[in-house]
Amino acid sequence: MNSNNPEISIIKNFSKSIIINLSNYQLQMIDYEQLSELIKESPYLEELIMPKILEQDFNQILELLNNANKKSVSLKQITLEIPAKSIENNKSRFNQINIRLSRNREKIYGIHGGGNFGLCLMAYEASNSPKGFEIVATTSKELMTRVINCTNKVYFQHKKPHERSVASKVFMICRHREPLLELYQEAVLLAICVTADVMHMITEDIAICLIQRYKKDQNFLKILVLMNQTNCADFAYEAVHKAMMHLTNEDLEYVEKVLASVEFVSTDIDRIVTMFPMKKSESKLQMI
Q1: pLDDT number for residue 155
Q2: Per residue in 95-143, pLDDT tens?
Q3: Do 55 and 147 share a domain, yes or no?
Q4: In whole angstroms, what is the distance from residue 99 CA to residue 185 CA?
Q5: CA quadruple 179, 182, 188, 191: dihedral positive or negative?
Q6: What is the DSSP letter of 44?
Q7: 129 and 262: one domain?
Q8: Do 160 and 117 belong together in one domain?
Q9: In the chain, how many domains are there?
Q10: Cα–Cα distances in Å, from 273 out to 115, 148, 230, 238, 239?
Q11: d(CA 199, CA 105)
Q12: Is residue 86 part of a domain?
């Protein structure tokens, strides 16, 4: 920021949201450019109060805000004085910004594959995050859905009988196309927790969901990938890319635009193997 304008600093305090009030300042275009980068990068900025913007600069500044807003997972409110002439010309853009702000207020953490690993690892971590996520996970098990949705809690029993952990604010949904579409459109963060074999069976659903999210507001989505596959983020990207190419009749330019708004991230555990029984391990060692 210029010396006569406010210096915006990020205080990394998880217990407090950050509000930036610029209503009493006059900013130059370079300041708005820096502000847009801050919106993209900060996981703590929740409210932004903008200064009065000159009508001739409004469209350019709105475009900066729109692009920054696509990547923000924390910004919930923007206070902005809109020139009368700009309201009609930017209805679509305002609508997209409002959709993203609303999504950030809901704070839905989606889990595609709410099985043992999806719930025990991802749901537990999300539940204990200071971000206050609402967790929505898919399952094919009707009984699990009914039991968990009674209390919106998942309990985890540890090795010792008296040790137990809990994930709160958990809601289970079926993994059919319609609820899955809604989950992908509303989530601020998403995890895919399936085996590599299952991934091949659901890539078309994932591709359709991501295309629909892009059509809605082009909002960025980070997807954490947990599966029994090394380099699982690349594996997931390539599988979804292939499915999208098929769905779009090989429209590579469009597919790359959609996937540019998505980041697949390998989790710390990117290789899960079925536990080998101890007795069999011991017998194998004795034979060597």
Answers
A1: 85
A2: 899 999 999 998 999 999 988 778 888 888 888 888 889 999 999 888 8
A3: no
A4: 10
A5: positive
A6: S
A7: yes
A8: yes
A9: 2
A10: 15, 27, 11, 22, 21
A11: 30
A12: yes
